[in-house]
Design a protein that fits this description.
Oligomer: single chain
Number of strands: 7
Low-confidence stretches: 11-66, 258-270
Largest sheet: 7 strands, mixed
Strand content: 5-15%
CATH superfamily: Phosphoglycerate mutase-like
Strand order of the largest sheet: 1-6-2-5-3-4-7
CATH topology: Rossmann fold
Radius of gyration: 18 Å
Structural class: alpha/beta
Helix content: 25-40%
């Protein structure tokens, strides 16, 4: 894991062997795990966790004094069990608690190293909330933001790609931006949702999904263009546990503004 995440625009375009599989490469290709989030309550934190509670007030004061122009979005940890399946906003597999903790440590290290405030927004999915729970233990303010969820694949979600009717896949390929896969969310609607996050993220640190990171890469690399013409133009997502950074046009939302700015947002509970 690199100590400093790459620029969000650094990803190469996904291969175009088949448009649908290329698009999904940017989403949740290797998902779910048999471990349960409840295991988190049985695992102790590191000895230095107490130090983070002392750091939080100082970082919060710094956050109030200056606007942070950089935002960093992390893809959730890898999960097992849904290889070759369509995994979107409706799939909610758990993640191994150890992987969630490792990613939380990485995020904390980057925040410390770059002087970022201990504020993070996470997707409502369990594979992201699990990381948020560890960060909360480390003294971070953690909020759930529904805008960070993955693309909604509708009735395709959770199915193996080979079981999705070929005619539906072909229809998506023919209208990549306007077709709603499985009756879910069109890519155009997804990009409209992500465009608001790209301009003004709810926190300097985010934990989200591969599809959303691909969308951020598209917006960063194409000057906010509406949507790619085909799946072959859709950027590949970073690997699970990896991240990308960008400079939001409107800056990062200040502390305390998340709930007002984000429908469906809320404080992450224990």
């Amino acid at each position: 894991m690199k100590a400093r995440p790459n620029d969000i625009s650094a990803g190469a375009a996904a291969p175009a062997a088949h448009a649908a599989s290329a698009a999904h490469e940017a989403h949740e290709a290797h998902e779910t795990d048999e471990a349960h989030e409840t295991d988190e309550t049985h695992e102790t934190g590191d000895a230095d966790e107490a130090d983070d509670a002392d750091e939080a007030p100082a970082a919060a004061r710094a956050d109030a004094r200056q606007a942070f122009a950089c935002a960093i979005a992390w893809r959730h940890p890898r999960v097992e069990g849904l290889r070759d399946c369509c995994v979107g906003a409706r799939s909610d597999p758990p993640v191994d608690v150890r992987r969630a903790k490792r990613l939380a440590h990485r995020i904390r290290a980057v925040a410390r190293g770059e002087g970022l405030p201990p504020r993070v927004a996470v997707s409502p999915a369990r594979r992201c909330r699990a990381v948020g729970r560890w960060l909360r233990r480390f003294g971070f303010e953690v909020r759930i933001d529904a805008r960070l969820r993955e693309l909604d694949f509708g009735a395709w979600d959770g199915r193996r790609w080979v079981d999705v009717p070929r005619g539906e896949l072909d229809a998506w390929c023919a209208d990549f931006a306007g077709y709603a896969p499985g009756g879910g969310e069109t890519l155009a609607a997804f990009l409209a949702r992500v465009r608001a996050l790209h301009a003004r993220p709810p926190a300097p640190l985010l934990v989200t999904h591969g599809g959303l990171l691909s969308a951020l890469r598209w917006l960063e690399s194409n000057g906010g263009a509406a949507a790619p013409a085909s799946a072959a133009d859709w950027p590949a997502a970073p690997a699970c546990g990896q991240a990308g950074r960008w400079r939001p046009q409107a800056g990062v939302a200040p502390a305390g503004a998340t709930a007002r700015a984000a429908p469906g947002a809320g404080v992450l509970g224990r």
